[in-house]
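This section describes the prediction task in plain terms. A model, or a person checking by hand, is given the sequence of a single protein chain and must write out its three-dimensional structure as a string of tokens. No templates, partner chains or ligands are provided. The sample shown here is typical of the held-out split.
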Amino acid sequence: MRAFVAVKVDATPQIGRTLFELDALRGSGVRPVAPDNLHMTLRFLGEVDDTRTAEIADALRWATEGRAPFEMPLVGLGVFPDERYIKVLWIGIGEGGPRDAIVALADAVGRELERIGFSPSEFTPHLTIARVKSANPAKRIRRMVDGNGTTDFGVQRVSEVLLMRSTLTPKGPLYDIVSRSRLEHAPEWSGFTREG
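The expected answer:
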């Protein structure tokens, strides 16, 4: 399966309005993320054998063990890789404690996944809200970014980490939840042991 680790993000009214605005650009090469598909990726795993599901789920439970849920403010718009060549439009995370908390959670996830053989990967906290397939809408998107550099897009409560399966289709990806690891949750273990 094609898999990734994420936290779910709800479409706040502010995000919903931005997605609606982006939907008007769909014909010019912009593909907004469906509201039900909003998530922050903590680690992309790529193609993973289904037989490793329980092992990965246990690693995520180790990563969340003893961690309290937290509030994550969503603030400002930005783009990847830069404003001259826009491929992704994203919402940022507020500075300070909340940003530190999501980075620490992603680091813990990364450590546990590396312990079971996954390669290291850098985490940049952001919420992807659209992918850009052509240069046509670049000027409009730059205006959106310039006008929303500090916009408050609401607050998201982070209370669980999800192992997700992604199925690519012509209409966009379909996501299924494979396992949930709740923050401050004492789970039933599958039997895999944690080494090191």
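For orientation: The longest helix spans residues 97-115.
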